[in-house]
Write a structure and sequence with these properties.
single chain; 405 residues; mainly alpha; Growth Hormone, Chain: A; 2 domains
Length: 405
């Protein structure tokens, strides 16, 4: 078998990054223009909120489909089809002049994200088994940059095109075009390799429904993801409640997003040579807990608290994405574990911010709502104590080459 050269490895990393930029932009681009959409289409607040909540629930519900599609078409080709679906649904927003069509684009984007996510984990397991932590960091950073660009630039784009939110939302389909273009060489090489190994097909794998450890990881992923969405949703309103200006509150939310993105890239880089994930999980959770305590007591500014929360969120997401790769031995198995974890995890994560909001409504303050998040992080720490060490695996030829970079 021909070993991949340095250029091939670097291209795979670059392609992984660009593909990952597609996995949040269709969701995060909506929030800054929600009021414009609601005003133009004359829809209720509940209906317009579905544009962001539907994709998250779809990311959970349709995640188990990824494995079946991968068995039929292969990991690389299925990822490309999922990105194509995300891009097409995003582009369709250009002509979404009534609410039902706009909601359909949210459903289709959520399905594409649900399929691509688990398979990207399988791709990382196949091509970078000894560097999975660093590649999860690349994956997380790609999602974060795609989310930040779409959320930060959607309003300027709308203003550039005469207040057209349709154009401002549809323009992010460019990420899918970029993704498909850089993914084509990956698919070609994958097709060649599968032709060579066609005489020895791999056995099909199933989701680990009966595995207690998989359920434990599912719960952990769901709780940490729920806290992220809670911070993203309620951190700015909490700053407003404390008497800060709207501009300062927006800055607080922006700082949280930027630090979370940087943390998701940097923290996994320290984990490739470390088989014990527990200390990193616990420290990340404690960082967010410290941010909450300082916020509630007023001992630090909301921006500093947002930094601590961002560090915690930036560590927990990639770490919980790494854990199923640690436990599995094949790309398909990694995809199936990730699919199950995201299936249950995203359903849980969609509930946590709702519970936080309900606590706020009952108490008329965000203090008790953020206190509730302290208990969620305490549960994450307890689950972290049961996390297993990374399984050691022999280094394949392509990884020996990658190690020399």
């Amino acid at each position: 078998m021909v070993q991949p050269n340095k250029r091939t490895i670097l291209w795979s990393i670059f392609a992984l990054f660009v593909i990952s930029m597609n996995l949040r932009a269709a969701i995060t681009s909506i929030s800054p223009v929600l009021k414009d959409i609601q005003s133009d289409l004359h829809i209720s607040s509940i209906t317009v909120s579905l544009l962001t909540s539907i994709p998250v629930f779809c990311m959970g519900i349709f995640a188990p489909v990824a494995g079946k599609l991968s068995d039929r078409w292969g990991i690389e080709r299925t990822i490309a089809l999922a990105i194509l679906l995300i891009g097409a649904s995003t582009a369709l927003r250009l002509v979404s002049t009534f609410s039902s069509l706009l909601l359909l684009t949210a459903v289709l984007a959520g399905i594409g994200i649900a399929i691509a996510g688990p398979l990207i984990s399988g791709f990382i397991k196949e091509h970078f088994p000894q560097h999975s932590s660093a590649m999860i960091g690349v994956y997380s950073a790609g999602m974060g940059i795609g989310a930040s660009l779409s959320a930060g630039l959607v309003v300027p784009v709308m203003e550039l095109f005469h207040q057209s939110w349709n154009i401002a939302l549809a323009v992010w389909s460019v990420f899918a075009v970029m993704g498909i273009l850089v993914w084509i060489p990956i698919m070609k090489k994958s097709a060649q390799k599968k032709t060579e190994s066609a005489l020895s097909p791999q056995p099909k794998t199933t989701l680990p429904w009966g595995n207690r450890y998989a359920w434990r990881l599912t719960l952990m992923f769901g709780l940490q993801s729920g806290t992220y969405y809670s911070f993203a949703t309620w951190l700015a309103p909490k700053a407003l409640e404390m008497g800060y200006t709207s501009s300062y509150a927006a800055t607080t939310a922006t700082v949280f997003s930027i630090v979370q993105m940087l943390g998701s890239l940097i923290i996994p880089l320290f984990l490739d040579r470390n088989v014990n994930r527990k200390p990193w999980l616990i420290l990340s959770a404690m960082s967010s807990m410290l941010g909450i305590v300082l916020l509630l007591t007023g001992m630090a500014s909301p921006v500093l608290c947002a930094v601590l929360m961002g560090i915690g969120a930036g560590g927990l997401f990639p770490l919980t994405m790494i854990l199923p790769l640690d436990e599995t031995s094949t790309p398909k198995e990694a995809s199936q574990w990730t699919a199950m974890i995201q299936f249950g995890g995203y359903l849980i994560s969609g509930i946590v911010p709702i519970v936080v909001g309900a606590v706020k409504d009952m108490t008329n303050t965000y203090n008790y709502a953020f206190m509730a998040l302290l208990f969620v992080f305490a549960a994450v720490i307890l689950l972290s104590l049961k996390v297993r060490k990374k399984r050691e695996a022999p280094i394949p030829l392509q990884e020996e080459k990658a190690a020399s970079l």
